[in-house]
Amino acid sequence: IRADYNITTTATDLGTPRLKTEHSITVRVSDVNGNASAFTQTSYTLFVRENNRPGPYISSVSATDRDSGSNAQVTYSLLPPQDPHLLLTSLVSIDADNGHLFALRSLDYEALQAFEFCALVSVLVLDTNDNSPFVCWTPTTTRLCPAAEPGYLVTKVVVVDSDLGQNAWLSFQLLKATEPKLFGMWVHNGEVYTARLLSERDPTKHRLLVLVKDNGEPPCSATATLHVLLVDGFSQPYLWLPEAAPAQAQADLLTAYLVVALASMSLLFLFSVLLFMAVRLCKRSRAASVPEGPFPGHLVDVSGSRTLSQSFQYKVCLSA
């Protein structure tokens, strides 16, 4: 509280006149490190916008010490975070002399929304609209019965946005259509519906261009193209759009080739089986035929050594 004190002492005698003498003493109090450093705030909340440039100053913390001299000098450092998976040293750094904090790398709100260190400083990452809507599914062609009532659900566009919060709020709009007043679209869910009854004058092929955008600032957008065919009942054969005709023709040609190849292999296999059976039957009929006699009375052995008996000769003929 006070570094030094001035004390004045007075010595007075009892004579007449009284005489006195004054003496001043200066007491200097030497400082010891008896006070701990303390932050000026119990907690700090820092807001950093995502996709920031690495390196710039983001904010600062401040601490004081009631001691004096070297005992009052404060230095700053980062303690290991409570979360062992958080690599704090790769996110922020602090100036040891003045407590200034710096971002070491670009932050991504979708990957890391907030982190704390020293159980005192909380860093909140602010989301920016850095992701465009992504059309993850649209039907190639949708068939529609001409008897559909107004408000009939024709198709739906499925879109996702990697941002969070209001930056991921999507709105849909029907930009262009072959018959603009025939179809409508719900703003928030991407559903396309019939706005009126269909008539015979309406074309059978319709092309719809859909725009989807998010609620960010500035907004990001994407487009999707839908094809709608008017068919008289869903049992009617599928009608292909001109854009899809070449691919369908190629698929049909490939199917025809496969059918012809399969039929040829089947016929060749059947012919082989019949031929094999005919050869087997022919051999069996020849084996079953018995040669007619009379046999010669004296046959000479192949080696010419002796004459075979008639009984052995008969058996040999049958075994053939």
TrEMBL record:
Its record classes its membrane topology as: Single-pass membrane protein
Superkingdom of the source species: Eukaryota
Where is the protein localized? Answer: Membrane
Q: Does the keyword Chloroplast apply?
A: no
Q: Which Pfam families match?
A: Cadherin (PF00028), Cadherin_C_2 (PF16492)
Q: Which InterPro entries match?
A: Cadherin-like_dom, Cadherin-like_sf, Cadherin_C, Cadherin_CS, Protocadherin/Cadherin-CA
List the protein's name.
Protocadherin beta-9
Q: Which organism is it from?
A: Saguinus oedipus (Cotton-top tamarin)
Gene name of the record: PCDHB9
